[in-house]
Protein: Guanylate cyclase
Organism: Sinanodonta woodiana
Amino acid sequence: MTENCLFLIIKQRRSHPWKFLLSYENESERTTLLGDTRNQKEQSSREGDPSGKRITIGSYKGNIVTVKHILKKHVEINRSLKKQLQIRKELNHDNINRFIGACMEPPHIYILTQYCQRGSLEDILQNDDIHLDDMFVASLVSDLIKGMIFIHESEIVTHGNLKSSNCLVDSRWVLQIADFGFQQLKSDRSASLTDIQKHYKNIAWKAPELLRDMNRDPRGTQKGDVYSFALVLYDIIGRKGPWGVTGYSYKEIVDKVKSRTEHDVFRPELSFLSCEPFVKQCLMECWCEDPEQRPDFKFIRYRLKPLQAGLNSNILDNMIAMMEKYAHNLEGLVAERTEQLSEEKKMTENLLLRMLPRFVADQLKRGKPVAPETFDSVTCYFSDIVGFTALSADSTPFEIVCMLNDLYTYFDSIADNYDAYKVETIGDAYFVVSGLPIRNGDLHAGEIASMSLELLDAIRKFKIRHKPHETLKLRIGIHSGPCVAGVVGLRMPRYTLFGDTVNTASRMETTGVPLKIHCSAECRAILKKLGGYTLSERGYVKMKGKGELLTYFLEEEDSSTRIRRLSDVKSSLLNKTQSGSILGPKLVAGDTGCDKNSNCSGYWSAEVPPTPTLDKNLTPCDSQTNIGLEYLAVNPLSRTSLWSTSHSENSNHVSGDHFNDSSSPTVLGHCMEDMLWNNVLYEDCEDTVNEDSTYSLVTMSEDVETSPEYIHLLDMFTSNTQDCIKDGATMEMV
Ligand SMILES: Nc1nc2c(ncn2[C@@H]2O[C@H](COP(=O)(O)OP(=O)(O)OP(=O)(O)O)[C@@H](O)[C@H]2O)c(=O)[nH]1
Ligand SMILES: [Mg+2]
C-alpha cells in the first residue's frame, strides 16, 4: 500500500462517504502502514496467492490494525455490499475479529480488522516451540465454538470459509474468528500452478456436498461450517494439519472427498490422534457425509463439555493461568535458545580463530581497528605441488578437492608444532610465515627451515586417495626479510602480508626444484647464525625483477640444536622476566623462581600475546631427558609454553630448593616432583623476614603422596594456577 492509497482512502471518503466505513477525525489519525504480519520472504511468496491478498500491519486511530489488500479488478458497490459491511461492522463479540473499516476503490481495496498479536491458529499450531497443553486446547476450542454460535445466530448466518488460518489469536490467548461476511470481496483468482495448489489447500476444508456443487454459494452453509470445524478441531489436537499425514496432495484429498461411494468416505485418520473417545465421536459426527446428521454448534458445545473440565470457571483466572504457562514455556525456550546461541558463538569464534590470529580476532570482535605493523625480520615459506595442473586434468574436481583437503590438513597439523602462522592456501600453494604476529627474534628462519624439512618428509609419505601408486612432489621456497602485516577487508577480513619479502619467497618457490627447499641468501645467513642446518650452494639463479641471485638448498638439520636453542631462549626470557623487562604480568605466574641450573625442557616462551589462554591439550615436552611428572601450559596461538614444570635426570633440585605460598607454578611443580621422585618432604619453616611460610627440604619419607605437606603443596599449586585453568584448560601429567 502506498502513500497514495492512504491519501485515496481519505480523499474518497470526502467525496463519497458511503463508500467507506473508515472514519477519521484529523490528519494524525490517518492509517499508517507499519509492516507485515509475516516476514518478508513469506510476504513475497504471497504475491501470487490465489486469494490475491496481502496482509499488512497498520495503525489506525492509534491502534494497530490488520490491513488486508484484496486484489480485485472490479467491485460493484451495491446496496447488498453496503449492508453486509454495515452488519459486519456492528457484529461485536469477544470471539469475533472486529471489522474496523474498508476502502473500495479498485485496485485499492483494503479491509481493516483488529490486529491479533499471536497470529492465526495455523501459525501457532505449526510452531513447534509453542507447547499447547489441555488447558490451551480446551480454551481455544471453547472460544471457537462460542464464536461460531454467535455467527450462526447473527444476521450473517454462516461463515463459509472456516479454517485454522481464519481463527486468529490475540495477546491474551483469546481466539477470534475472522474473514467472513463479505462474499463479494473475494479476490479474483489467478490460475498459475502454485495458485492452483493453494486453491486446493484452501478448499480442502470444505464439506463434500459444497465441493461437489459447482455453483456453490460462497456464503456456504451452517452444516458446511460444522464440517470445517471438525477439521480445525482435528488440526488443533493432532497439530499435523487438517488432514494429518496422508501422503496425498490437497488436490487428491479434495478429489477423494468429492468422490462418493456407498459406505466409504475419505476423512482424516483418527487412529493416531491421542484424545478422549468423546472427542473422536464428536469429530465423526461433525464430518458426517450426510449434512443433516451433523450436529449444530450448541450440540457440539454440549458434546465437548468434558474438555472444559480442567478450565477455571472464572475467565480471568483462565487467562492469567494461560499467560503464566506461556511465559513459562517462553522461559524454557529462551534458556534453550541461549544455550544454542552460546554454542553457535563458540563455533563462530573457533572459525574466526582459524582465519585470523587470536589477537587480531579479539581486536576485530571489540570493533577496534587493527593497525598495520612493520616487522623487521620474518621468514616466509611458499610451496607448490609440482604438476598439479596435469594431475587436475586427470582427476575429477571432487578428487582434487579431497586430495588438497587431506594434504593441507596434514600440513596444518605439522605447521602447528612450529612457531609459524599459516597465512593461506591458494589453490595448491601453501603459504606460512614465522616471526609474526608475535616477533621471535631470529628464530623464525629456524622454525620455517625445520618445518620445511618436516613437510618435505611428509609429502614423500603422503598417499593420494584416488591415485594410491603415485606420489606428490613439492617445490618449496623460503626467504627472510622485513614485511608489513595487517587486516584487509571488512567483509572477509584477512590478516595479510605485504612487501618484497613475500614476493621473493614466492619467486624462490617458482624457481625451485621438486622435492628441494630453495633457500635465499638472507635466510641462509640467519640459519647459519642459529646453527644446526646443512645447506648446499645452488649457484646463481635468475629471478624476475632481481637479476641473478646466489641461492641455496636446505638439506638437513640436527634437530637437537633446535631443542637446545629453544631451551636457551626460554631461560634467557625467564631471566629477563626476573628483571621485569619484556614479559611483565602476561607470562602466567611469572616463572620467576626457575632454577637457572636446571635443564629446562624443549619448549620455550618467546613473546606472550596480549591475552594468553591455555591450550586444552597440554603438549608434552620434546626433550628426551625429561622424566616423571611434568606439566606444560601452551599458548594455542604460537604453540609456545607459558610455563612448564620439568624434571631432568641431570639436574638435582633437591638441595636448596624452597618455596612459599606465592611461588610460581613452576617452582611449586619442581618441588612436588622432588618430593615424589626423591621421596623427600618439605616442611614449613617460618620466614621471619617476609612473615611468610617458607618450605624447605627436611626429611625423607615413603608416603609423600599422602603427607599433609605434599597435599598442602598440591593445594598451593592448584590455586596458583587457577587463573590458567579457569578458562577450561586442564592440567595433565605428561
Ligand atoms: N499476527 C497476525 N497475523 C494475521 C492477522 N490476520 C491475518 N494474519 C496472518 O495472515 C495470514 C493469512 O491470512 P489471510 O490473508 O486471511 O489468508 P487465509 O486465511 O489463508 O485465506 P482467506 O482467509 O481464505 O483469504 C494468516 O494465516 C496469519 O498468519 C492478524 O490479525 N494478526
Ligand atoms: Mg484469512
